[in-house]
Write a structure and sequence with these properties.
Layout: H1 4-23, E1 28-30, E2 38-42, E3 46-53, E4 60-63, E5 73-82, E6 91-99, E7 103-112, E8 122-131, E9 135-138, E10 141-142, E11 150-152, E12 155-159, H2 160-166, E13 170-174, E14 179-184, E15 187-192, E16 198-201, E17 216-218, E18 221-225, H3 226-232, E19 236-240, E20 245-249
Parallel strand pairs: 1-3, 2-8, 9-20
Antiparallel strand pairs: 3-6, 4-7, 5-6, 7-8, 9-10, 11-12, 12-18, 13-14, 14-15, 15-16, 17-18, 19-20
Length: 250
């Protein structure tokens, strides 16, 4: 049986652990499959990168060109871990980064031999877009996104599918034309990647001909202005600049 002091200590430890997990900003893990991607993160998050490597061949991953971070990213670690102790066995190189500011940066690496003056055998590049943290509430409850909202020209852009389905709408994506259709209760909204033009039908008062900011595909998600989509689907939107919170009511 646990003594009272031991029980109290374990209880406090459990509460501290739960609190830390709820409030920590989850990091993103990148690997070869992320090559060429646009990665959207928020300040305070971490980035972890791992790439297959075999230093016994003389090849190592090097920044190509030199990494600067641009006041957005800071490298906090880099190491090689072998998969076995056998000579010539391959492994992986691991990097860790801390997101320290808003803006754009890139991680660009080349797999090369340091003493050779030629192009890398292979390259890896991801574009990093860091946006200020924004909370989105739907009828008072936090709306979670797998990719965080982005601020563009003082407009909040969010992944369309998550928001649409949370509002009870159906989403259909057409990859060939890079168009998306949102439907709810007789209302149809059609938009295209890279365009601010919108076609709407089923609205009694018509529809805005264009959005303030064009739709954009980032990190594999179709981003649209939150206010436009929410209000078109009949909701009210409020912005609290102090807490950086968007509230959707409807």
């Amino acid at each position: 049986m646990l003594k009272p002091k031991t029980y109290l200590f374990l209880s406090m430890l459990l509460l501290i652990t739960m609190f830390s997990q709820d409030n920590a900003l989850a990091g993103q893990v990148l690997d070869e499959s992320s090559n060429g991607d646009v990665v959207v993160v928020i300040v305070g998050q971490s980035l972890e990168l791992s790439l297959e490597s075999n230093p016994s061949t003389g090849y190592l991953w090097q920044y190509f060109p030199e990494f600067a971070g641009g006041g957005v990213l800071e490298e906090t670690g880099h190491e090689y871990r072998g998969e076995s102790n056998l000579i010539g066995a391959s492994g992986r190189e691991y990097w860790s980064f801390k997101v320290i500011g808003t803006g754009n940066a890139a991680i660009s690496l080349g797999y090369m031999r340091p003493w050779e003056s030629r192009l890398p055998e292979k390259t890896f590049t991801v574009d990093i877009k860091v946006t200020p943290q924004v909370a989105v509430l739907l009828n008072g409850k936090t709306l979670d996104f797998d990719v965080p909202p982005v601020i563009r020209e003082d407009r909040t852009l969010v992944p369309l599918r998550v928001l649409s389905e949370a509002l009870g709408a159906e989403v259909e994506w057409f990859p060939v034309t890079r168009q998306v259709t949102v439907q709810k209760e007789g209302i149809t909204i059609e938009m295209m990647d890279g365009s601010s033009e919108v076609y709407c039908s089923g609205l009694q008062d018509g529809c805005t001909a264009s959005m303030d900011v064009p739709a954009e595909i980032m990190a594999g998600r179709f981003f649209v202005p939150l206010r436009f989509l929410s209000e078109t689907l009949g909701c009210r939107v409020e912005w609290d600049g102090v807490t950086r919170t968007v509230s959707i009511i409807g």
